[in-house]
Specification:
The chain is an alpha/beta fold. The protein contains 14 helices and 13 strands. It has 2 domains: about 5-150 and about 325-344, Rossmann fold; about 150-320, Glycogen Phosphorylase B (Rossmann fold).
C-alpha cells in the first residue's frame, strides 16, 4: 500500500446502533479502491460489527468508545489522516486526537463544535448555515444525500430494482437496525403479521438484537418469515422487496438508491429532521416510534402502502431522485485530494 494511511474512529452500541460503522466501512472500501490503506479504532461494539461484516478490516482495539480510551488506542498508530464518526466527540477531542492530520468528520446533528477540515452530513435538509460557528474557517462541506456512503452493490442493482417498482406486494423487508433499539423489530413484526397474507417477510437484525429470540420462535411456525442475522445480502434483499419497513438512519439511502417504497420508523431524535424532509418530498411514509398513537398510525400507513400501487410507484420515483448510491467514491475522492494537497 503506497497511499495514505487513514484511521477511522467510530461509535457503535445499543443506543447509537451500528450505522456509523457500516457507513464508515463503505467509505473505507471506497478509499481503499482509490489507493488508501484504512484501519479502525475498534472498541468492543465496533469490533463485533467488523467481525460480522468485514473480518479482514485492520483494526486497533480500544477499551471503550470513551474519548480517553480512543485516544489511547490512537497513540500507538501511524496515520496520515483520520475520519471521525462519533457523536460523543467534538472539536476539543478531534484536534488533539488528529495531531494536525487532515480530518474528515461525519455528522448528522450540527449541535457542537467540530474539528473538521472536511465535513460530511448527508441529511436531505442540511444547509451550510447549520454549521456556522461550529466548524473552522475554510472547512469544506459535503452536504446532502448525494454524498451518503452507500455500498456499491446497491448502485449495481439500481436500474433493475427501479424497473419493477409498483408491482403487487409479494415481499416485505423489515430492517430496523442491527441493534434493534428497544426491541422495535419484534413490535413492528407483531403488527405486520396479521395484516399481510401470502406475503414473504424478510427480517434483518443483528446477532445481539433483543427481538431475535422471540422472532426465532415465531419464524418456526410462520413460514412467511425468513430471518437474516448480520446479513451480507442487504442489497439483494432490498432490490427484491416490494415494500420496506425501515429505520430513519443511514440505511435510508440504501433504500432510496433502489427506490424501495418505504414505511419509515423514526427511532431517535437525530433522525427526525431527515424523516420529515422525506415525508415532505413524498419519498417515504413516516411514523414515529415515540408517538402515543404509534400503533394506529403505523396500521394506517401500512394499509396505504400495501393497497395503493400508484403510491408505491410515486414513493419509488421520489426516493430514487434523492440518492444515486455514488456518495462513497465522491467523498473518498474529495478527502484524498485534500490529503494530497496537505502533504505537498
Amino acid at each position: 500500500m503506497s497511499g495514505p494511511r487513514i484511521l477511522f474512529v467510530v461509535d457503535a452500541g445499543p443506543v447509537v446502533g451500528g450505522g456509523h460503522v457500516m457507513r464508515c466501512l463503505t467509505l473505507a472500501q471506497a478509499l481503499e479502491a482509490q489507493g488508501a490503506g484504512c484501519r479502525f479504532v475498534a472498541p468492543p461494539a465496533v469490533e463485533a460489527i467488523l467481525d460480522a461484516f468485514a473480518p479482514e478490516m485492520a483494526r486497533t482495539l480500544a477499551g471503550s468508545t470513551a474519548p480517553a480510551d480512543l485516544a489511547l488506542a490512537m497513540a500507538s498508530e501511524m496515520f496520515d489522516a483520520v475520519v471521525f464518526d462519533h457523536y460523543g466527540l467534538a472539536e476539543a477531542d478531534h484536534r488533539p486526537m488528529a495531531q494536525g492530520r487532515p480530518t474528515l468528520v461525519i455528522d448528522d446533528l450540527a449541535d457542537r463544535p467540530l474539528g473538521a477540515d472536511l465535513l460530511l452530513d448527508s441529511g436531505p435538509a442540511r444547509r451550510a448555515e447549520d454549521y456556522l460557528g461550529l466548524t473552522p474557517d475554510g472547512v469544506r462541506l459535503l452536504l446532502g444525500p448525494q454524498y451518503a456512503p452507500v455500498r456499491p452493490e446497491f448502485a449495481a442493482l439500481r436500474d433493475q430494482a427501479l424497473s419493477w417498482r409498483g408491482e403487487p406486494v409479494g415481499r416485505v423487508l423489515v430492517s430496523l437496525g442491527l441493534t434493534d433499539v428497544d426491541g422495535i423489530t419484534g413490535r413492528v413484526v407483531e403488527r405486520l403479521r396479521p395484516k399481510v397474507s401470502e406475503v414473504g417477510i424478510d427480517i434483518v437484525l443483528g446477532a445481539e438484537a433483543p427481538s431475535l429470540a422471540s422472532l426465532s420462535k415465531i419464524a418456526k411456525r410462520d413460514t412467511r418469515i425468513t430471518l437474516h442475522v448480520d446479513s451480507p445480502h442487504m442489497a439483494r434483499l432490498t432490490a427484491e422487496a416490494d415494500i420496506g419497513i425501515g429505520a430513519a438512519g443511514s440505511s435510508t439511502w440504501e433504500r432510496c438508491t433502489l427506490g424501495l417504497p418505504t414505511l419509515m420508523v423514526v427511532l431517535a431524535d437525530n433522525q427526525r429532521a431527515a424523516a420529515e424532509t422525506l415525508a415532505e418530498r413524498e419519498a417515504a411514509l413516516v411514523v414515529d416510534a415515540e408517538d402515543s398513537d404509534f400503533d394506529a398510525t403505523f396500521d394506517r400507513a401500512l394499509r396505504r402502502l400495501t393497497t395503493d400501487a400508484e403510491l408505491r410507484r410515486s414513493l419509488a420515483s421520489a426516493s430514487a431522485e434523492l440518492c444515486d448510491g455514488q456518495g462513497a467514491p465522491r467523498v473518498a475522492e474529495a478527502f484524498l485530494k485534500m490529503i494530497g494537497a496537505r502533504s505537498t
